[in-house]
């Protein structure tokens, strides 16, 4: 893959934070019982308002209410590298080594994310054959991720400055550079779901409803104080070039005066030639200074959409089967931009940001009256969405998830469960991924308990963690610097961590 980029042209496109695996923009953990068992697609409980809405029809008549909160803590780590072709044997061959990278020219960039408050509420009112449901949850995103040292895509062009300065005659025997770089991305997809169930028979129920999605994103970033070792001294490159520009301007002024006052045609011609040479240098210095000036971004994005949802649930003997289908939701996200020195986030521009459809299947089997086992399957229709720059075309296949869990009633008041989930993303050769927005395949393990604290009240607690694969991406890039087009070979290795603790209260009236 070849890309031609200018400095800062890839400052920011998206920085999604997901508190749990799922489609590329989906939170599936909307109740604590999911966190401690995962395979809730074919079970019956108030958490089914999201995971198996048709099965909720088989709860008892009356009002059922659930209030939940989760706290998630994540890291995102990228090891980025770059080799500049044709510069083997020079300090500029692996430029990240000049600012914290290792000998192989690979530098670590790490982001931290926390979501201390990830709430959800589910409510159900059942009456004989009919049931009415409502829920509110953060169905995508849910917090902010901060890279206090920027990202490799920010720094690649900056890392070539020592080479460019050397070409200008401002080099150093010990070339180095530094930059103050910062990125914060925050995203929330608030989901309000309403629906109705109907029991066709005592063992067969159907569901129809919709989810109203409100999307709000916030991106802040800056690239400041770019410095380089010039003549053995660390200099702010913008200020240094500004000073050199002034010196060149003064030289041009003096030569013009000399040219205007001389009466010797040969001397006048020599002055004019020197002026042209200095004007050429001045243009290069001014252009270079513009590339290294401090840059800032402050953009908020909003959008909304409505997702239709249908479901079915069937009971027979010790088995229960559930299924639901969420339609792919078209959505555009509009920029409200206060500062954009990147030229990428023009105020008022709309960007495609569809929410992927979902096919969910599940089954539960009652091994004994106190012991139940369940399995589930998710198929997210990521390739059927419209994304910025048609990124969905770079996916090899849709996201798939495989879930399993068991639940055991120790006593009538204490229930424990454990479960796992395997998430497989169709990332292909990694062209979809960038350090600005990435996912990798993973597996999650969780456990927890439900404790009946009153006749009509149960407290749920759970903890789960996710272990992510490492995904390495290699690609070629053409970078414009100091009037030259440099051929580079770049690598990015992506991985993440995720830990979630949750507590909730279920009430029956």
Quaternary structure type: single chain
Q: Largest sheet, described in full?
A: 14 strands, antiparallel, barrel
Distance from N terminus to C terminus (CA atoms, Å) equals 60 Å
- Number of helical stretches of at least 4 residues: 6
Category by helix and strand content: alpha+beta
Radius of gyration in whole Å, from Cα? 29 Å
- SSE order: EHHEEEHHEEEHHEEEEEEEEEEEE
Strand order of the largest sheet: 2-3-4-5-6-8-9-12-13-14-15-16-17-19
Strand content: over 45%
Question: What's the quick description here?
Answer:
This protein has 509 residues and is of the alpha+beta class.
Describe this protein with a few key phrases:
509 residues; alpha+beta; 14-stranded antiparallel barrel; 6 helices; elongated
Task: Describe what this molecule looks like in 3D.
The protein has 509 residues and is an alpha+beta fold. The protein has 6 helices and 19 strands. Strands 2-3-4-5-6-8-9-12-13-14-15-16-17-19 form a 14-stranded antiparallel β-barrel. Helix 5 runs antiparallel to helix 6. The N terminus is likely disordered.
What is this structure's SSE topology?
Blueprint: E1 4-5, H1 32-37, H2 48-51, E2 62-84, E3 106-127, E4 130-147, H3 152-158, H4 161-168, E5 177-201, E6 204-230, E7 233-236, H5 237-261, H6 265-291, E8 295-316, E9 319-326, E10 332-340, E11 350-352, E12 358-368, E13 371-380, E14 397-409, E15 414-426, E16 442-454, E17 457-468, E18 471-481, E19 484-508
Parallel strand pairs: 1-18
Antiparallel strand pairs: 2-3, 2-19, 3-4, 4-5, 5-6, 6-7, 6-8, 8-9, 8-10, 9-12, 10-11, 12-13, 13-14, 14-15, 15-16, 16-17, 17-19, 18-19
């Amino acid at each position: 893959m070849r890309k031609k980029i200018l400095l800062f042209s890839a400052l920011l496109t998206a920085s999604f934070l997901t508190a749990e695996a799922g489609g590329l923009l989906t939170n599936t953990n909307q109740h604590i019982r999911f966190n401690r068992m995962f395979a809730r697609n074919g079970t019956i409980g108030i958490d089914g308002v999201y995971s198996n809405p048709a099965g909720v029809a088989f709860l008892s008549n009356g009002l059922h209410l659930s209030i939940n909160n989760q706290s998630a803590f994540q890291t995102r780590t990228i090891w980025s590298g770059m080799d500049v072709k044709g510069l083997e044997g020079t300090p500029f061959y692996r430029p990240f080594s000049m600012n914290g990278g290792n000998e192989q020219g690979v530098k670590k960039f790490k982001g931290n994310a926390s979501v201390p408050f990830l709430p959800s509420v589910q409510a159900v009112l059942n009456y004989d054959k009919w049931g009415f449901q409502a829920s509110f949850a953060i169905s995508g995103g849910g917090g902010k991720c901060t890279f206090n040292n920027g990202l490799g895509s920010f720094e690649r062009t900056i890392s070539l400055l020592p080479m460019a300065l050397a070409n200008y005659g401002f080099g150093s025997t010990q070339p180095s550079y530094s930059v103050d770089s910062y990125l914060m991305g925050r995203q929330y997809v608030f989901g309000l779901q309403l629906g109705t169930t109907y029991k066709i028979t005592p063992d067969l129920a159907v569901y129809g409803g919709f989810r109203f999605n409100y999307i709000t994103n916030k991106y802040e970033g800056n690239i400041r104080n770019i410095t380089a070792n010039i003549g053995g001294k660390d200099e702010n490159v913008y200020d240094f070039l500004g000073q050199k520009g002034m010196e060149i301007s003064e030289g041009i002024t003096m030569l013009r005066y000399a040219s205007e006052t001389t009466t010797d045609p040969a001397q006048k011609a020599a002055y004019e030639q020197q002026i042209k040479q200095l004007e050429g240098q001045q243009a290069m210095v001014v252009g270079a200074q513009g590339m290294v000036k401090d840059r800032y971004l402050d953009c908020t994005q909003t959008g909304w959409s409505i997702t239709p949802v249908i479901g079915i649930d069937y009971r027979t003997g010790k088995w229960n089967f559930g299924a639901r289908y969420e339609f792919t939701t078209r959505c555009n996200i509009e920029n409200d931009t206060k500062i954009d020195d990147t030229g990428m986030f023009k105020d008022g521009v709309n960007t495609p940001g569809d929410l992927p459809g979902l096919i969910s299947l599940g089954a539960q089997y009652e091994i004994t009256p106190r012991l139940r086992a369940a399995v589930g399957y998710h198929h997210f229709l990521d390739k059927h969405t419209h994304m910025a720059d048609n990124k969905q075309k770079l996916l090899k296949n849709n996201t798939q998830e495989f879930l399993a869990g068991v639940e055991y009633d120790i006593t009538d008041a204490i229930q424990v469960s454990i479960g796992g989930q395997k998430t497989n993303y169709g990332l292909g050769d990694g062209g979809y991924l960038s350090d600005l927005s990435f996912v990798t395949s993973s597996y999650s393990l969780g456990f927890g308990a439900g404790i009946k604290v009153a006749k009509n009240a149960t407290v749920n607690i759970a903890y789960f963690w996710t272990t992510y694969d490492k995904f390495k991406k290699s690609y070629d890039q053409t970078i414009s610097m100091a009037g030259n087009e440099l051929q580079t070979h770049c690598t990015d290795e992506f991985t993440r961590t995720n830990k979630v603790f949750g507590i909730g209260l279920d009430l029956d009236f």
